[in-house]
User: Which sequence fits this backbone?
């Protein structure tokens, strides 16, 4: 349950609109047409979500017979149409089928559920066993994945710039974490609070990947969306938490615009005030905390971030300073004045965010 009032209409995509805007203006129809269709899909879904949302989170109970503390996953196939959810193709407990996209979506939902349950004792997205629904093969060459407030949706990509959006498990974890944020702090999706919303999803998306792979903070690549970019793209991922601004530098996509510190903070009216851009700053702060503490990042560093997200003190319109201050408090309350607290304080200082 959120302590911050009614739930806002939520529509969060993994690929920023400014990236699709650039592709839509490309002279090559193989690049521009899928991007335009994707932007049209996103605009429709965003408007639909806003018009159909009522006050309060969607109340979806686990079905009769569902096992407590176990995921309840259902995968649907949109058949390259835009109608949701589509045709049911796999449900909880069913064996893998021939469609690799369906299987990856199912596995990714499970990996997300497991990280939240095993690391933080959270039973699904809402903490109360919310069923996890996902639709694959959405639209024609759809260049995105999104959480619409109730379920996950994955496009197949255009195979020119983007591949299948179920390939990176951190993309799945990222989008589902928007649901966790929706049910907890409910951070407003604009400006610094929106950048925090995106950053929290990147943080836990990365932790879900690290947990699934059994990687320590030192072993992790700290990339978001590795494996998503097609071979023709000069880049490794959508974003880098280790080195924001270095994920790609491509003649079609342009250069990764994320800053790592407040010195390069981007002021813009696009992308809801740069939510996918300035999220690089708190992303980098978490990377610095996790690597300074060492070990498994989902343990102490992740626990601090989770405590802040779910603690009830994070305001909907929180700015970076507010979030940073709460992480310092959470580190002190849980771990005292040891290495964890010092790592948190130093990380925010390094990225230029002050704490109160």
Assistant:
């Amino acid at each position: 349950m959120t302590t911050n009032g009614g739930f806002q209409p939520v529509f969060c995509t993994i690929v920023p609109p400014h990236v699709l805007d650039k592709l839509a203006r490309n002279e090559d129809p193989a690049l521009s047409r899928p991007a335009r269709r994707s932007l049209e899909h996103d605009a429709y879904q965003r408007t639909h979500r806003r018009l159909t949302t009522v006050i309060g989170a969607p109340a979806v109970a686990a079905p009769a017979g569902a096992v407590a503390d176990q995921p309840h996953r259902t995968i649907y196939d949109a058949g390259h149409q835009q109608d949701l959810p589509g045709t049911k193709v796999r449900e909880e407990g069913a064996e893998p089928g021939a469609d690799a996209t369906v299987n990856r979506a199912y596995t990714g939902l499970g990996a997300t559920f497991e990280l939240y349950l095993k690391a933080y004792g959270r039973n699904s997205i809402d903490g109360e066993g919310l069923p996890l629904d996902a639709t694959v093969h959405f639209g024609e060459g759809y260049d995105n994945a999104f959480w619409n407030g109730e379920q996950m949706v994955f496009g197949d990509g255009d195979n020119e710039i983007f591949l299948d959006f179920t390939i990176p498990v951190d993309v799945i974890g990222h989008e589902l974490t928007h649901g966790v944020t929706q049910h907890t702090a409910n951070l407003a999706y604009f400006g610094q609070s929106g950048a925090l919303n995106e950053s929290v999803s990147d943080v836990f998306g990365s932790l879900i990947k690290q947990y699934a792979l059994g990687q320590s903070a030192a072993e992790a690549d700290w990339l978001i969306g590795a494996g998503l970019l097609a071979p023709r793209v000069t880049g490794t991922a959508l974003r880098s938490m280790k080195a924001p601004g270095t994920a790609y530098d491509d003649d079609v996509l342009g250069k990764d615009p994320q800053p790592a510190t407040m010195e390069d903070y981007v002021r813009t009216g696009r992308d809801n005030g740069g939510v996918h851009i300035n999220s690089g700053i708190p992303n980098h702060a978490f990377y610095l905390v996790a690597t300074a503490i060492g070990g498994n990042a989902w343990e102490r560093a992740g626990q601090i971030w989770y405590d802040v997200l779910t603690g009830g003190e994070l305001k909907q319109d929180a700015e970076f300073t507010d979030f940073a201050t709460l992480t310092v408090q959470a580190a002190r309350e849980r771990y005292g004045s040891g290495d964890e607290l010092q790592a948190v304080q130093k990380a925010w200082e390094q990225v230029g965010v002050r704490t109160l």
Observations:
- Confidence is low (pLDDT under 50) at residues 1-5, 52-59.
- The longest strand covers residues 73-77.
- The chain is about 40% helix and 10% strand.
